[in-house]
Specification:
about 35% helix; five-stranded mixed sheet; alpha+beta; globular
Length: about 450
């Protein structure tokens, strides 16, 4: 993509309404624009990151054995009355009446709708287990939306639901998602710590939040300090395995969100206690038969008995992850994207647009990167070098190729790492080979 053709309306100054880093940089980099309080349009740069995140989430859900479907944003109120949550959910739920006076709502979550689908289709123990997920926009009418997409009213979520015959099967599904979440966040360059959490309006008696530690986190969390640096090899695990050993190795440490903190336990940890701010990026629940009993979702066992289906719910804040990654990976100049979610792989900076030698070299580099499947953003604008450097640092692409007449005269260009700031002079061929090897 040529930058002169790309819609990326950057801002030079920090917007006054932006209180946290991710909100400031997303507005300044031209990733989002506010439509109304807590509701944003995702512009091309932001949409490219969102797509990368969705791809990783999908791959890990599929790997865990979940199947994708798509449920609507608008749901009938009657199924929420069946579960007993219609009146309990509160003012965060946007209630709607259609032209036929039918009560509807803009879904804040999908437990009722997926239970209705399952009860109409699954009758026998032979049909279980099942895991179904979708990635869909949600709406919760926050009383004070703030922090940009971190606490918005409209947001993109991945919801997965598990359906099992008994507790043992439900626990295995829970463990699969536990590990799938760890893998998902690890692939995005994030250290997500699973913490015992409150189930809130979803319900259930087993629940973990996956928290990213950051100074701008919305709540105070606490954990054993060893968890912060603990690394567990996840990439070679059998996706259909039990995973109980991995889950036990992590949940054996003390780790709790603000609602679940235990002063007595924390008092025994002494210097081993780490207290920090946390950003929630995922939440998993086991809630047993809470919805299946209320909504009559039963199956017949091998012995001919009718039993309610055991269920779990697993959410990832897909749009929120964009902000969380920025909060965890930035500097004073802008965003530093992990390579797995970067909107482009590399930025090409032509220091003297209009110079035949520079233009020819840049066009050749741009074409060769495209042929190699490396997504490049080519800044061929007639702007000053300082403006180009500032824009590239702001949008945070992992690599920058800097092409100028002085370097070309000596047969070299510069390759800059955005994460470290290190610059290396090398031939065009060597730079292309290095980028190819990194992309492989």
């Amino acid at each position: 993509m040529r930058l002169s053709e790309f819609f990326m309306p950057t801002l030079k100054e920090n917007p006054s309404e932006a209180q946290i880093v991710s909100h400031r940089y997303m507005l300044r980099a031209g990733m989002i624009r506010q439509s109304s309080a807590g509701i944003y349009s995702w512009l091309p740069l932001g949409q490219r990151v969102l797509k990368k995140i969705k791809q990783i989430v999908r791959q890990e859900q599929d790997r865990a054995g979940a199947q994708e479907l798509l449920m609507p944003t608008i749901q009938p109120a009657e199924i929420w009355r069946e579960s007993g949550r219609y009146d309990d959910y509160g003012k965060e739920m946007l209630r709607i009446t259609d032209r036929h006076d039918r009560e509807m709502l803009y879904g804040p979550t999908n437990e009722e709708l997926i239970t209705e689908i399952i009860r109409e289709s699954v009758r026998s123990y032979r049909d279980l287990p099942k895991m179904l997920y979708h990635i869909q926009w949600k709406f919760r009418d926050e009383v004070r939306p703030r922090f940009g997409i971190m606490r918005g009213r409209e947001f993109l979520m991945k919801d997965c639901y598990s359906f099992d015959l008994d507790y043992a099967g439900a626990k295995k599904s829970y463990n699969k998602m536990f590990v799938a979440y760890l893998r998902t966040f690890q692939r995005m360059g994030l250290k997500a710590i699973p913490m015992v959490a409150d189930s809130g309006a979803i319900g259930g008696d087993m629940s973990h939040e996956f928290m990213i530690l950051a100074d701008t986190g919305e709540s105070e969390v606490a954990c054993h300090k060893d968890l912060v640096d603990l690394n567990i090899e996840l990439m070679n695990l059998d996706p259909q395995g039990d995973h109980q050993t991995v889950v036990d190795s992590l949940t054996g440490y003390y780790a709790a969100t603000d609602e679940k903190r235990d002063a007595e336990i924390e008092g025994t940890l002494g210097n081993d206690l780490a207290v920090a701010r946390g950003i929630e990026v995922g939440h998993i629940f086991y809630f047993g038969t809470k919805y299946s009993e209320a909504m009559n979702a039963y199956v017949t066992t091998e012995k001919g008995e009718d039993v309610p289906i055991e269920m779990g719910s697993y959410g990832i804040g897909v749009s929120r992850l964009v902000g969380a990654i920025i909060e965890a990976s930035h500097d004073d100049n802008g965003i530093i994207w992990p390579e797995s979610v970067a909107p482009f792989d590399v930025g090409i900076i032509n220091l003297r647009a209009g110079d035949d030698t520079c233009d020819t070299a840049c066009e050749d580099i741009y074409a060769k990167l495209g042929d190699a499947g490396i997504d490049a953003l080519y800044d061929e604008r007639g702007e000053r070098a300082g403006v180009k450097f500032a824009d590239m640092d702001l949008i945070g692409l992992p690599w920058q190729l800097i092409v100028g007449p002085r370097g070309l005269k000596n047969g070299v260009i510069e390759l800059k790492s955005r994460a470290t700031g290190e610059r290396e002079e090398m031939t065009i061929e060597a730079a292309l080979n290095k980028l190819n090897s990194l992309a492989a």
